[in-house]
Amino acid sequence: MVIPDRIVELIEGEAFMQIATRSDDRWPAHAWVVGGRVHDDRRTVTVFIAAAAAQPNVANLEANGRIALGVALATHEAYQLKGSYVSSRPTTADDRARQEHYRAALLAGALAAGYPEPIARPFTLGFAYDPGIAITFRVDEAFLQTPGPAAGTPLT
Amino acid sequence: MGILPDNIKPAMQGVIPSHVVTCSAAGTPNASVISQVYYVDGDHVALSHQFFNKTKRNVEENPRAAVWLIHPETYEGWELHAEFERSETSGPVFDAMDMQIEAIASLVGMKGIFKLRAADVFRVISVKRGTGDRMPLAEIR
């Protein structure tokens, strides 16, 4: 599917993001995402996670390919993408430059949403990212996840 | 004495939202932010169920969940692996969580939207302190 404009904006902006994967015996696994980008085809996403959090997620992806990406603002606006694994690799200097931009935006967004600086700063800047792993996946589905009765609505 | 250490309790105060990941019977993972992880006893936590959502449907199909928490003083990550046991819609755990959800909703401007439908009780299988995705506090800049 083509990723909606708003979700592209958030992935490349100031959203808190996390991935979910699962093992073959269906134990889920989690990792925080520190920055990401949507590719020109608007169907493929690369997200960056700490190398120390890569396992078991990368092993899960190599085994079964199933991934979800939660995308949420401090204001509670939230979305979820479901997709299929394409590849993973160590992050590059270009990725890290993108991550530095992301970290600054994440802190600014949390402060703008009203989080006190003594909480917002260590929380947003404390996500490990170097060394990192870039995970690329193709997006199959997107859902609204903002808390409320419409949460779970598929987006086209 | 259960599997949950006492020093995890501050991470369950709701200062910073927690995350829960689940997986459907068909094998599709799901990632969700959760308002509250409540310490029930040394072996159980309760997750706030506020909407009829994918997390709820998934744990009814496949009880396995991973819960990510952050300590509000050390900013360390903690991860629990847990299995869904039951939903409670009344009683002391539900009442305590309901009161806390009201307080969280007021703080974050979601009053009237955050409403507890059930306290979903999970048995904790494993606890991991230090999840690899957080820097030591002294290195954060």
Walk me through this protein's architecture:
The complex is a heterodimer of chains A (156) and B (141). Chain A has 156 residues and is of the alpha+beta class. Chain A has one domain: Electron Transport, Fmn-binding Protein, Chain A (Pnp Oxidase, Chain A, Roll), CATH 2.30.110. Chain A is built from four helices and eight strands, in the order αββββαββααββ. Chain A has helices at residues 5-11, 57-64, 93-112, 117-125, and strands at 16-22, 28-33, 36-38, 44-50, 66-72, 78-90, 132-144, 154-155. In chain A, strand 1 and strand 2 form a beta hairpin. The longest helix of chain A is centred in the middle third of the chain and has 20 residues, at 93-112. The relative contact order of chain A is 0.23. Chain B is globular. Chain B has two helices and seven strands. Chain B starts with 17 loop residues before the first strand and ends in a 12-residue tail after the last strand. Chain B has a single domain (6-132), classed as Pnp Oxidase, Chain A. Chain B has helices at residues 54-61, 92-107, and strands at 18-23, 29-34, 37-41, 44-49, 64-70, 77-88, 118-129. Chain B has a seven-stranded antiparallel β-sheet. By secondary structure, chain B is an alpha+beta fold. The longest helix of chain B is centred in the last third of the chain and has 16 residues, at 92-107. Chains A and B meet through strand 1, strand 2, strand 5, strand 6 and helix 4 of A and strand 1, strand 2, strand 5 and strand 6 of B.
